[in-house]
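Hi C.,

You asked whether I'd gotten around to modeling the 366-residue construct. I have! Everything is below, sequence then structure, no commentary in between.
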Amino acid sequence: MTDGITEEQLLRPHAEQLYADELAALARHDTGSRPSSWALSPAAVVTYLLGGELDDGTVITPKYIGPRRLMEVAVATLATDRALLLLGVPGTAKTWVSEHLSAAISGTSTLLVQGTAGTPEEAIRYGWNYARLIAEGPSTAALVPSPVMIAMRQGKIARLEELTRIPSDVQDALITILSEKTLPIPELGMEVQAVKGFSVIATANDRDRGVNDLSSALRRRFNTVVLPLPATADEEVAIVTQRVAALGASLDLPELPSAAEEIRRVVTVFRELRSGVTEDGRAKVKQPSGTLSTAEAISVITHGIAMSAHFGDGVLRPADTAAGIQGAVIKDPAADSVVWTEYLESVVRERQDWSDFYRAARGALR
């Protein structure tokens, strides 16, 4: 690391830093055909994402828990001249998958444009060093390349997060890049042509659609992969457990004993409120306005571990997670408070082995 900072001191290392050993091991054992500029073959990229064991016993940890076919389709898309759009509700690991795909294919996940309502066209095309522009006029030295332009020049993957939050006229700057694989610079009478290996991975939220939908012209230039919510409670528990362990390690939180029961309880609450029906299918419940995503469940558990470690007895208990669950559920104080209270009284209160959680949740409401 630069400036004397080690990887262990970083709050959130990039994927290529955190899993450098796994990527190096995969590269050593990779006998598959690699597309131009790719660090790994498509098959090795899928192994990196889904996990496995190499011939020498090296264990590759799973980065994505879900249908294998979705990851194969995503990787195959990037091996062609098509860009990839990862679509899904919040918490379906769109950003996580995008980062790890870029790390495995290009060796870097940092060529990133974060989409917001204020994202300018320069963030996708290029900008100028205005001091040099005024002093010298338009020149290559005064040009400030965007992450997309850098990816084009180097044959790497560029990432665009929350594409639908970017204004429509700025989105359309991608059309020429994706269709012609070139970026004109009329001020200099030149263009940047993409090197083989260049592609774009964009993410978009199909529930909270953001500020602007994609134009049909732009959408046609993406292959879309829809990332679903976890199909089963066991799958979601596995995802939450894995991510909480990784986050806890990076935040230097202690490993707590017997956290599995509370993780499953949080996941159960979120799944029932999200689907509008109890786990056994016997009763319908009202749905709150929030998404109650897997990512929010991870946040609730991580916060609960911090509460237990610093202000509790070192064991994750309902009192440590109740306030976090309430905060995730109640986004609209008027409507969601009614939904949460009704769920506690009609569902949670009736579960004998949930009496401690019921008391903690009712106490958090006061």
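If it helps when you're writing up: The chain has two domains: 7-226, 233-365.

Thanks,
B.
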